[in-house]
Write a structure and sequence with these properties.
- With about 400 residues, the chain is α+β, with helices and mostly antiparallel strands.
- The protein has four domains: about 90 residues, conserved putative lor/sdh protein from methanococcus maripaludis s2 fold (Beta Barrel); about 60 residues, RNA polymerase II/Efflux pump adaptor protein, barrel-sandwich hybrid domain (OB fold (Dihydrolipoamide Acetyltransferase, E2P)), CATH 2.40.50; about 90 residues; about 80 residues, Efflux pump adaptor protein, beta barrel domain (Elongation Factor Tu (Ef-tu), domain 3), CATH 2.40.30.
- Helix content is about 30%, strand content about 35%.
- The strands form four sheets. The chain has a six-stranded antiparallel β-barrel with strand order 3-10-13-12-11-14. Strands 2, 15, 16, 17 and 20 form a five-stranded antiparallel β-sheet that branches.
- α3 packs antiparallel against α4.
- The chain starts with a helix and ends in a 19-residue tail after the last strand.
- The relative contact order is 0.17.
Length: about 400
């Protein structure tokens, strides 16, 4: 009895094992038709090898900053009486921007001018005294030479002349000092008129920020405005270590902004940092972009494309056509006469999202772009039939009446 049970169990195990084996083989056949149906043709789609211009492009993102800018600040302290410009206003070089209360500086100038007048009067007085002392010295010297005067008198006359000369020189120096004080007071007074002042760049600039209002008490060097030159804006990007050798000064750059999705702006790579930051392994690069229309604004986020290389009139194949067989990448070429596919190894050059440059100039024919994953070299293929021309005419289903 036990023997019969063992035989029944063995038969059941063998039966279950056979069914599992059949299911596995069926599953493999469904997953790979070329294995499941030996010699069966694979339906494919093809396209011809094309010729086009390929570009090797690096993609970056960054922010815009103005070509140049500086903060306008008073050189003296005082109460702000007038602020003559506002955000976004265009400003010319030398234009009056703000006015400080000048009463104190006006008084200082008037006082300095009064002291100058007194000093000039003192010069005239000492000049006359020195002239008189010089005339007396001449007369005494003549008498001394004729022995009509003593040496003591002559020495006293020399001293008087020297003293008069010293007073005159001091009064002249005092005039120069008074003139300097007047000049300083004039400069201090002029500083109450705050004007735009820059060198180089565009003839006009724009008020980028405003920090104060009329009536505020200001200290010297307190910023009141920023003036920016956005006739040229600069896109600042970070270049990673892998791309650094391919980034060169003067390269043409294309810039896009979400603010103007339909526009592409062009610039040139103007500056490249000579070192990479150790923390990020990135280097700063700056791209100058002409902004004559003033559309681009500092602070905007931009996407940047740098053209590393451009190859004109080269053979290309769709990226979707490229497969790998036996460790080599290549494409399948369709032979319409034998209805077979031949695997051709390729060396790929520039590659973008759609096409890949073929460095083998001899490649030609129809490249398989759909179904190549199921093919091996020499495998049978089935090409799609040309679409039948639609009947032209009137009536049901296009039939002529």
């Amino acid at each position: 009895m036990k023997k019969i049970l063992w035989i029944v169990l063995l038969v059941m195990v063998l039966l279950i094992g056979w069914r599992v084996y059949v299911k596995i083989n069926n599953a493999k056949a469904e997953g790979n038709p070329t294995q499941g149906r030996s010699g069966a043709a694979v339906a494919v789609e093809v396209t011809q090898v094309a010729v086009k211009t390929m570009q090797d492009i690096g993609h970056f993102s960054g922010s815009l900053k103005p070509r140049s800018g500086y903060s306008v600040a008073p050189k003296v302290s005082g109460r702000l009486v007038k602020l003559l410009v506002n955000l976004g206003d265009k400003v010319s070089n030398g234009q009056l921007l703000a006015v400080l209360d000048d009463d104190i500086y006006q008084q200082s100038l008037e006082q300095a001018q009064t002291e100058l007048t007194l000093a000039q009067a003192q010069v005239e007085q000492t000049r006359l005294a020195y002239k008189a002392a010089e005339a007396n010295w001449t007369a005494v010297k003549s008498l001394y030479e004729q022995n009509y005067s003593t040496k003591a008198v002559m020495d006293q006359t020399d001293a008087e002349k020297a003293a008069a000369k010293a007073k005159y020189d001091m009064s002249v120096a005092e005039v120069q000092r008074a003139k300097t004080i007047v000049k300083t007071a004039e400069i201090q007074l002029s500083y109450t008129q705050i004007k735009a002042n820059w060198t180089g760049g565009a003839a006009t600039r724009v008020v980028g920020e405003r920090f104060v209002d009329a009536g505020n008490m200001l200290s010297a060097n307190t910023p009141i405005l920023t003036l920016i030159d956005n006739s040229i804006v600069t896109a600042e990007i970070d270049v990673i270590e892998r791309d650094y050798p391919r980034v060169k000064l003067g390269q043409v750059v294309q810039i896009n902004s979400d603010a103007y999705p339909e526009r592409t702006f062009t610039g040139k790579l103007a500056r490249l940092a000579p070192t990479l930051q150790e923390s990020s392994r990135q280097a700063k690069a700056e791209i100058d972009i002409p902004n004559g229309e003033g559309l681009l604004k500092p602070g905007m986020f931009v996407r940047v494309q740098i053209v590393y290389a451009q190859h004109a009139n080269v053979r290309v194949v769709p990226v979707t056509a490229i497969v790998e067989r036996d460790g080599k990448q290549g494409v399948f070429i369709a032979n319409s006469s034998s209805m077979t596919a031949s695997f051709v190894p390729l060396e790929i050059g520039i590659k973008d999202a759609e096409f890949a440059e073929v460095l083998d100039a001899a490649l030609e024919g129809d490249v398989i772009v759909l179904g190549q994953e199921m093919l091996q070299d020499g495998g049978k293929i089935k090409l799609p039939k040309p679409k039948e021309k639609e009947a032209i005419g009137k009536g049901n289903n296009g039939a002529k009446p």
